[in-house]
Amino acid sequence: QTEQNGHAIRKAHAVASGVRVDTVVSLGVGGALSARLNPGDHVIASRIVKHDCVCSNDPPKETELMAPGKLWVSDPDRKSKDPGINIAPELVEWAEGLCARAGVDFITGTLISGDEFVASVRRKKELAGIEPGVAMVVDMEAGGLVQVAQKYSVGFLAVRTIADRLEPEAGDVERDYLDFKEPAADAAAALVAAMAGITTSTVQQTGS
Question: Which residues of the chain have pLDDT under 70?
Fold first, then answer.
């Protein structure tokens, strides 16, 4: 999984540095951080937080999330800084509009990302606690990809389809992922096709 993340980041670098790109749109699967979500449900990320970009401290200090790629430890004002990355509202609204036109149900919220396959209910609840009630999904790619997009000053949007629930009946997140990853990938692919079809139709109508 970590190699997949590295491959995705390398591909994003190659694309963004080699051609003119306005926006990178990343679609794929992730794990639910909310009991509201089931396999096949879609989450549009309004912001992304890297859960493994941290400044660890001994008690009584708390471990801090850091903004990836930014000066942090030496910043005297870091306590007032946001460690997350907000997605441009117009891109979120664009994705919400496409999903609505395609008749696809979705939830908008925070995507938690990092180089960790989260196969523990306890760990999922810890990550959900980073932004209680707002953190919806966890993945392994978006945190790196959005950094690449920022480096090249291009827009970034992530949509994730749920592959495993917050609390499967048997409590086995890994089993849930293995059972539902293919249907979730199919649902994500169908979403890509629907969004691409609507976008192509809109471009054709605009040009006619």
Answer: 1-19, 199-208
